[in-house]
Design brief:
Elements lengths: L1 H8 L2 H26 L4 H23 E4 L2 E4 L10 H36 L23 E4 L3 E2 L7 H15 L6 E2 L2 H5 L8 H8 L3 E10 L2 E10 L5 E10 L3 H21 L14 H16 L4 H15 L4 H17 L4 H18 L4 H14 L9
Parallel strand pairs: 3-5, 3-6, 4-6
Antiparallel strand pairs: 1-2, 6-7, 7-8
């Protein structure tokens, strides 16, 4: 029993948990990059073995040494009164929570999107070359697309949040098509502001088509231009401009997604006439407030998170049925707890009713289930959230 207590005091268990989570995240990223590079299959297995072999060494290191203000010292050389292991433990707890959020988000995405699309169509991986030099053409191959961040052409540079939000909504709409491979948001946004050609971007993302465009917002009107480009020859499969009142932005999003699906071959995508679901609001002011909240939340700072929460609450005040705004507010409270802005009691009091409202409307909402899991993990560690 004393040995277990000492393991906890020296943060050995926390270090082990953090190491396993970090290794998992890095292995997922390595698998994605190695697949693009056409590396042999044994490479990722070798990295996994290396990570497992290093684990005992990491645990031994955490047992023998301690992090002090003067640097790393042997644990027995640190006077009892000078030890900062409780402070280090709290920092490790926050690191573990952030990593758990990443892991849970990935599992939710894999469970409810990737796995569903993988089971909806036959596996053609064995028929493809081991390391293709370019993405496959349309033809009989499984359609694939990457949605690049739409360029903000508005006079006001602060409208960047609006063009980014339109891009994210189009990603969400196209991801609902069961037989369409859509590059992840993180991968697509990595090319924001870059000067690579369509072919180079498509090759890096492993897709056959690129959807790009621009947004110009002026007063109560918006102009959206979108074009679908086939990567192998640069041919424009589809192009369209929309100039409408700002209140028609939701209809524009639906039209773009529908016409992209038609251009890629509706018979291949198996939409079956099922309408695609965008964000759950028809209020342009609520939508605009939500987009501003997402922009502040993405900064992930001590100052920006309260601003993001204010925007999300404004969106819900304008449209109480806005599910995405409610989920974004839940995530914001979790992030505020992680930065130490609020304690666990305040976080629980804020997110529990929000989770109940989402589950009442959508019992199987994957993000709500993921956030509930994170909340339950936090509840088992009552000392998290503050340094003091």
């Amino acid at each position: 029993m004393r040995f277990l207590t000492e393991l906890k005091r020296r943060n050995v268990i926390r270090v082990g948990v953090a190491y396993v989570l970090i290794a998992w995240v890095l292995l997922q990223a390595a698998e994605f990059l190695l697949e693009i590079a056409g590396a042999p299959e044994w490479t990722i297995r070798a990295l996994l073995v290396l990570a497992l072999v290093a684990l005992p060494a990491v645990l031994v290191f955490a047992w023998i040494f301690e992090l002090t203000p003067e640097g790393i010292r042997r644990e027995r050389e640190v006077p009892t009164g000078a030890s900062i292991t409780p402070h280090t433990g709290r920092r490790l707890d926050r690191t573990i929570i952030v990593l758990l959020l990443i892991v849970v988000a990935w599992f939710a995405f894999d469970e409810f999107y990737l796995e569903r699309r993988a089971t909806a169509a036959p596996d053609t991986a064995a028929l493809e070359p081991a390391a293709p030099e370019a993405p496959p053409p349309l033809g009989n191959q499984k359609p694939s697309v990457a949605v690049l961040p739409f360029v903000n052409l508005s006079d006001d540079a602060d409208n960047e949040y609006f063009s980014d939000g339109l891009t994210e909504t189009l990603l969400h709409l196209l991801a609902q098509l069961p037989d369409l491979q859509v590059a992840a948001r993180t991968s697509s946004f990595a090319f924001k502001g870059q000067s690579q050609s369509v072919g180079e971007i498509a090759a890096a993302l492993g897709v056959a088509n690129i959807l790009e465009g621009s947004v110009q917002k002026a007063g109560d009107r918006v102009r959206v231009t979108a074009q679908l480009v086939r990567a192998d020859d640069g041919f424009h499969v589809w192009s369209q401009s929309f100039t409408r009142p700002l209140e028609d932005i939701f209809a524009i999003q639906d039209e773009i997604a529908t016409e992209v699906a038609d251009a890629l071959g509706a018979s291949l995508l198996g939409t079956g006439g099922r309408p695609l679901e965008g964000v759950h609001t028809a209020d342009t002011r609520a939508y605009d407030a939500w987009l501003q909240g997402l922009e502040e939340q993405a900064k992930f700072s001590y100052i920006s998170l309260p601003l993001a929460g204010r925007h999300f609450r404004d969106a819900l005040a304008l449209d109480p049925e806005f599910t995405e705004a409610r989920l974004s507010l839940i995530r914001n409270y979790l992030l505020e707890f992680n930065t130490g802005r609020i304690d666990q009691a305040a976080m629980d009091a804020a997110i529990d009713p929000l989770l109940a409202q989402v589950r009442e409307r959508e019992p199987d909402n994957p993000l709500a289930r993921a956030f509930e899991l994170v909340r339950d993990v936090v509840a088992q560690k009552p000392g998290l959230g503050r340094d003091g």
